[in-house]
Design brief:
By secondary structure, the protein is of the alpha+beta class. The protein has one domain. The chain has a seven-stranded mixed beta sheet with strand order 1-2-3-4-6-5-7. A hairpin with a 5-residue loop joins strand 5 and strand 6. The longest helix has about 40 residues. The chain starts with about 40 loop residues before the first helix and ends with a helix. About 35% of the residues are buried. Keywords: Membrane, Transmembrane, Transmembrane helix.
Length: about 280
């Protein structure tokens, strides 16, 4: 569909939320000092003392590890609720500004044109990608679609909130890395078209470039898929990592669609990280 020239535009403004790392340290409990041995059973007592000290030290480390693991689980549980506890304008800001995010380091600005109701992986993702997400347990999927400042490209960005803990997310991340899952066309994310907008014709055949990022420090997968706003079919879609490489001359690369996918996904992910840090921050 030809983009509507009179489509309303969101006001442009800078949006660069800070990335704040969560505190990960735990305190170790002190071990009480022991009195010196003064009897003829010194050897036996020393052996016993060493055993007790070793046991106390081991207990301290186990307690510290357990406390850190409990903190991790509490943070992950909080992150899993953000899809419904955060306002939609926080999850998906109306305007995103990507400084140096375009081809050749050009600045990019994207405006939100549609937001989908939260849903499950089976409804939001292609079947094979949905089955891949089964490895980490899909809690909920949220999605939005953006267009660039010229209304010539459209990009759907989404977040999958999962049930997995850190080990599970690391395992899925390693699969995507070692098996090249992020470059497979049959694992491309699904688009979110929107009637009455420049994304009305944004369907499966219009997908041109995409990215999927499996986080290891949070139960979250962030993805984005981009295409042309005029609804043209793309026969050879490229993963964003290829479409953003120097010297690539494909239509998707020259139009900056790989940069759109990576830039929008990165900004949405950064905003979610900042929100998660604030939500899980311990009071001093």
């Amino acid at each position: 569909m030809t983009p509507r020239p009179d489509a309303p535009r969101a006001p442009l403004h800078a949006w660069a939320p800070p990335e704040t790392p969560a505190e990960m340290t735990t305190r170790l409990r002190p071990v009480r000092p022991r009195r010196p041995v003064r009897t003829l059973g010194a050897v036996a007592c020393v052996v016993l003392g060493v055993g007790l000290i070793g046991g106390a030290a081991a207990g301290t480390w186990l307690t510290g590890d357990s406390g850190a693991a409990d903190d991790e689980r509490a943070r992950d549980a909080e992150v899993r609720t953000l899809w419904h506890s955060l306002p939609v304008d926080t999850l998906f800001p109306r305007t995103l500004r990507g400084d140096d995010a375009g081809p050749g380091g050009a600045d990019r600005v994207w405006s939100r044109v549609a937001v989908a109701p939260d849903t499950d992986c089976v409804s939001a993702l292609d079947p094979l990608l949905a089955r891949t997400m089964d490895q980490v347990g899909c809690v909920r999927v949220v999605r939005a679609t953006y267009t660039d400042a010229t209304a010539s490209s459209v990009t759907t960005v989404g977040m999958v909130f999962t049930e997995a803990e850190r080990d599970g997310m690391l395992a899925l991340h390693n699969r995507f890395t070692t098996e090249g899952l992020g470059d497979r066309r049959d694992l491309m994310p699904r688009t979110l078209p929107a009637e009455g907008t420049v994304a009305a014709g944004f369907g499966d055949r219009q997908r041109a470039s995409w990215t999927v990022d499996v986080l290891t420090e949070a139960p979250l997968v962030v993805f984005a898929v981009s295409g042309f706003a005029d609804g043209r079919e793309v026969r050879e879609p490229q993963p964003a990592s290829d479409a953003t490489a120097d010297g690539v001359t494909t239509a998707a690369a020259q139009a900056g669609l790989g940069h759109d996918a990576e830039g929008i996904a990165g900004l949405v992910e950064r905003g979610l990280r900042a929100s998660a840090a604030r939500a899980t921050e311990k009071p001093e």
